[in-house]
Amino acid sequence: MSQKLRVGILGGTGMVGQRFISLLENHPWFEVVTIAASPRSAGKTYEDAVGDRWKMQTPMPEAVKKLVVMNVNEVEKVAAGVDFVFSAVDMTKEEIKAIEEAYAKTETPVVSNNSAHRWTPDVPMVVPEINPEHFEVIKFQRQRLGTKSGFVAVKPNCSIQSYAPVLTAWKEFVPTTVVATTYQAISGAGKTFKDWPEMMENIIPYIGGEEEKSEQEPLRLWGKIEDGVIVKAQSPLITCQCIRVPVLDGHTAAVFVSFDKKPSKEELIDRLVNFKGLPQELNLPSAPKQFIQYLEEDNRPQVKMDVNFENGMGISVGRLREDTVYDYKFVGLSHNTVRGAAGGAVLCAELLKAQGYIQAK
């Protein structure tokens, strides 16, 4: 009898759903037993429902090929067979909010990759190395939902992963102003070059809603729980531009920072390479041993060489140098569909299990 927790993937046929499924193959704690998707996929085997739309570079895991896809809208039925779910559903924001809360009310924890609940005041939005204490807001959310074990937890936008951890490592020097430009991969839009040939040799200087998320979500990560809700931090002041570039996986950020207490370059690099969090202390299965690496070469980080650092769960930083307008500038790189999406959610679920928030039903 397997001791693994039984996992459902909501929205399992899309790109992030596929990434969840590939990351959870042979996971020591979790086993995918249920895949739910839209009514048009329901009733087919997962293999048939996905067809020629498998977007991962590794083959579809054998264990899921013959699973019969369930209708994601049949909440009670899907929830009955799982201990918790990952959510990657493709719906409107209001529909996502409603369906994730509906699952939570069946006493099924929901760990979501979606943006719908990122600003719900009692829903924790967590990068486990940065703000694991925000999971404490779950007790207030359960009071609102009327649940004993059900809740919704989310991870933040993929675009901030290449610089928010860096700024967190430097918080003792009090960053005051941040200017970031992100160069974002097409998989962030759920696409490959086969789906989106017009992105070849092209740059699009606009990604809908992305700049506001990139400016505001780090402030929520650094916020505090007050009176049962998360109140965002007021500083630093962050301004962003987000650009779609012809790269499959990997979001790169070019960032300028000013500090209240100006550090030396050596101090900044020391804080990066020694930055650890609860996932490293607890040795969680998906946790990178080295969360942030610093690369000395002038031409790093590069997507082709560095995006899979620590199996895509680590952050790569380079080109740290003093600036003539701000104090320092640097380049950061993160894997947008691993650390930035499904992998970040899996790490959240591992920490939630380790802390007793997610248990076998």
UniProtKB/TrEMBL annotation:
GO biological process: methionine biosynthetic process; threonine biosynthetic process
Residue ranges annotated for the Semialdehyde dehydrogenase NAD-binding domain, each copy included: 6-138
GO molecular function: aspartate-semialdehyde dehydrogenase activity; NAD binding; NADP binding; protein dimerization activity
A Pfam family assignment: Semialdhyde_dh
Catalytic residues (positions): C158, H251
Coiled-coil region: none
Cited InterPro entries: ASADH-related, Asp_semi-ald_DH_pep-lack, NAD(P)-bd_dom_sf, Semialdehyde_DH_NAD-bd, Semialdhyde_DH_dimer_dom
Keywords: NADP, Oxidoreductase
Annotated EC: 1.2.1.11
Transmembrane segments: none
NCBIfam families membership: asd_EA (TIGR00978), PRK08664.1 (NF006416)
Similarity-based family: Belongs to the aspartate-semialdehyde dehydrogenase family.
Record-given protein name: Aspartate-semialdehyde dehydrogenase
Taxonomic source organism: Diplocloster agilis
Gene: asd
